[in-house]
Amino acid sequence: MLSHCPYNRPMEAGDVTIYDSTLRDGEQMPGVAFSHDDKLEIATLLDDAGVPEIEAGFAAVSRGEMEAIRDISRLGLDARILSLARSRPQDIDCALDAEVDTVLIFAGTSEIHRRYKYGKEVDVGTLQRYAVDAVQHAKDHGLRVSFSCEDGTRTPLDVLLLMYRTVDELKVDRLGITDTLGCVTPEGISRLVGEVKSRFDTPVSVHLHNDFGLANANAISAVAAGADAITTTVNGMGERCGNVPLEQFVAAMRFLYGKDLGIDCAKLTPLSRRVAALSRYQCSVNHPITGENAFSHESGIHVAAILNCPATYEYIEPEQVGNVRHLKLGKHSGAHIIEKRLQDMGLEYSRSQLNMMLDEVKRRGERTGRVSDEEFERIVKRCLESKTD
Fold first, then answer.
1. C-beta contacts of 373-377 below 8 A and 24+ residues apart
2. Could you tell me if residue 127 is inside a domain?
3. Is the domain of 91 the same as that of 215?
4. Element (H, E) at 56
């Protein structure tokens, strides 16, 4: 039995494309470096889960990076393969060598980026010329093109619209809004997406960071405002505080907004945990959707209710996102879980023995925080050997 929140409403948005950047922005997370084989495996897992576009890297970074992207391109995946590129024809050439389908061209457009990032102050007209040269070069070679304004949420609207108008005249395939510092609010991204969508027929993508913990909320607001594509990373990996977590965005859209993005939700947890292992970065146990505790229960009151009807404390079934339910033993356990465990073990017991087991479980939980299955079996053995009636 599953219940639903009566206050939620289906999202009245059009089709939404996920382009996952685990292999590019995700790998820029400090301390993470995927091997060549790791990248091929992750790309295959993303494709198997139904992710339609994979940003496989930044081809101009190095020869090794280009070769890894090229080998992903040659896997014959269903997903389109994308490479990041600066507004430079040389970067486009590297993406061409990597045999990608799409190039994601960007330029820093905020005043602070134009003044400090390039080593000299760059005017908007110069950025326009760079963008035109890069986009035209990519288009001349048959690539799909997305153009993004880096630090877009700190760029004045007139500058953004001027840059978008410049590349839109060259028939780019997507206009990208980038919240590089994760500083926009859900209301802010909604307004900005609305402004761009009202002026251009070209699809709009949104790349969001999580510095204030708003990336997933911002992604949902962007989609509600008409955004056509969202960047994600598995586990929300990425620079500083990361990006929109693939598993959280997909699950929220599917189970809260009734919008199926074409991703196999049952593969979210295996994907999350495999990427965590390959990145040597473990998610917190309470990571939403895919964390170990996402469907774990210890409180006696909660466990008693869960045993009667899981929907009392679970909005979706763990199997729907590839996770599993855990009924754990510890300080907060009640008699119901002890009885359930004993029944599953096929053991007979007296009420006094049950109470003794519960007392020991609680004491052990107070000392260590949790009671393992092995420890519980030892407790059961000691209590059942007791002659107390």
1. 376/329, 376/341
2. yes
3. yes
4. strand 53-57
